[in-house]
């Protein structure tokens, strides 16, 4: 992998993949990935279909543990405590409290708007009504949804528009104060206006949470991210400042991809 010489001062790390490989049974989908995730920055993962972006993203919240036959090798170090998120003695439920996930298609629970956001808090044992109300409002405000839903908190979540549902899923993920937020192509099911709202939100959110985002949209990667990683066939080919990756990539394969010659 080529890592660019970053002239600006380095930001502290939130996480770091160290020689990370991943197997779906006999299929090796990730091959020895090394990559830093900078604290309170947005890192975009780009690369052609099937290169392993989602597989890599899902390793950070141990989603692969839910299916038999999946296997990790290597480490994902999480800071400041230097925990290896993949260690057998680290509880995946705890990992998912620290590392939230927002999927491609909005997937609210078939419950009220309020209950969608309160869910993770209840799982954590919070039952005090006043505190729940406060936390739900805070999360909805952070997801730029409060003003649109404050008078209909008991309405069913699926009655919201697609873009509102996606912001609700972001509020749900934010409610438990995650340190890292994973976005898997969060705008691919949305129209340009809803997409713009999510991109703006990502920009706001990085003040308080580190973000790792998979996107097929090069303009989106360039707009929202501070760092970009290019993956190909399960390998991390190049990682660097977004501006440099897009303007002056070091690896020919990265250049071919971002100029549309490949993928
Ligand atoms: N459940 C699975 N079982 C076996 N192989 C899988 C499974 N899921 C993904 N793969 C394989 O792992 C590789 C990486 O897939 P992944 O979904 O991570 O790629 P991606 O870069 O996110 O693709 P896309 O951009 O199309 O979403 C692919 O070769 C894929 O076929």
TrEMBL record:
<keyword id="KW-0813">Transport</keyword>
<dbReference type="GO" id="GO:0016020">
    <property type="term" value="C:membrane"/>
</dbReference>
<dbReference type="GO" id="GO:0035435">
    <property type="term" value="P:phosphate ion transmembrane transport"/>
</dbReference>
<protein>
    <submittedName>
        <fullName>Phosphate ABC transporter ATP-binding protein</fullName>
    </submittedName>
</protein>
<keyword id="KW-0472">Membrane</keyword>
<keyword id="KW-0592">Phosphate transport</keyword>
<dbReference type="InterPro" id="IPR003439">
    <property type="entry name" value="ABC_transporter-like_ATP-bd"/>
</dbReference>
<dbReference type="InterPro" id="IPR017871">
    <property type="entry name" value="ABC_transporter-like_CS"/>
</dbReference>
<dbReference type="InterPro" id="IPR005670">
    <property type="entry name" value="PstB-like"/>
</dbReference>
<dbReference type="GO" id="GO:0005315">
    <property type="term" value="F:phosphate transmembrane transporter activity"/>
</dbReference>
<keyword id="KW-0067">ATP-binding</keyword>
<dbReference type="Pfam" id="PF00005">
    <property type="entry name" value="ABC_tran"/>
</dbReference>
<dbReference type="GO" id="GO:0016887">
    <property type="term" value="F:ATP hydrolysis activity"/>
</dbReference>
<keyword id="KW-1003">Cell membrane</keyword>
<feature type="domain" description="ABC transporter">
    <location>
        <begin position="15"/>
        <end position="258"/>
    </location>
</feature>
<dbReference type="GO" id="GO:0005524">
    <property type="term" value="F:ATP binding"/>
</dbReference>
<dbReference type="InterPro" id="IPR027417">
    <property type="entry name" value="P-loop_NTPase"/>
</dbReference>
<keyword id="KW-0547">Nucleotide-binding</keyword>
<dbReference type="InterPro" id="IPR003593">
    <property type="entry name" value="AAA+_ATPase"/>
</dbReference>
């Amino acid at each position: 992998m080529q890592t660019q010489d970053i002239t600006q001062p380095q930001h502290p790390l939130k996480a770091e993949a160290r020689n990370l490989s991943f197997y779906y049974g006999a299929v090796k989908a990730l091959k020895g990935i090394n990559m830093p995730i900078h604290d309170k920055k947005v890192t975009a993962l780009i690369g052609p279909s099937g290169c392993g972006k989602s597989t890599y993203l899902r390793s950070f919240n141990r989603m692969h543990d839910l299916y038999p036959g999946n296997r990790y090798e290597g480490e994902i170090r999480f800071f400041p405590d230097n925990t290896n998120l993949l260690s057998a003695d680290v509880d995946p439920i705890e990992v998912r409290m620290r590392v939230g996930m927002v999927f491609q298609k909005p997937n609210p629970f078939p419950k009220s708007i309020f209950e969608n956001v309160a869910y993770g808090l209840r799982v954590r044992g919070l039952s005090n009504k006043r505190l729940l109300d406060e936390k739900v409002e805070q999360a909805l405000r952070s997801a730029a949804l409060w003003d649109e839903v404050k008078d209909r908190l008991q309405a069913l979540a699926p009655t919201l528009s697609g873009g509102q549902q996606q912001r609700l899923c972001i509020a749900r993920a934010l409610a438990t104060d995650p340190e890292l937020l994973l976005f898997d192509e969060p705008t691919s099911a949305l129209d340009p206006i809803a997409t713009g709202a999510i991109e703006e939100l990502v920009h706001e959110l990085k003040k308080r949470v580190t973000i790792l985002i998979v996107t097929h949209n090069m303009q989106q990667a360039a707009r929202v991210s501070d760092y970009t990683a290019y993956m190909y066939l399960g390998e991390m080919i190049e990682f660097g400042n977004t501006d440099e990756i897009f303007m002056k990539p070091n690896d020919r394969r990265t250049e071919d991809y971002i100029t549309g010659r490949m993928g």
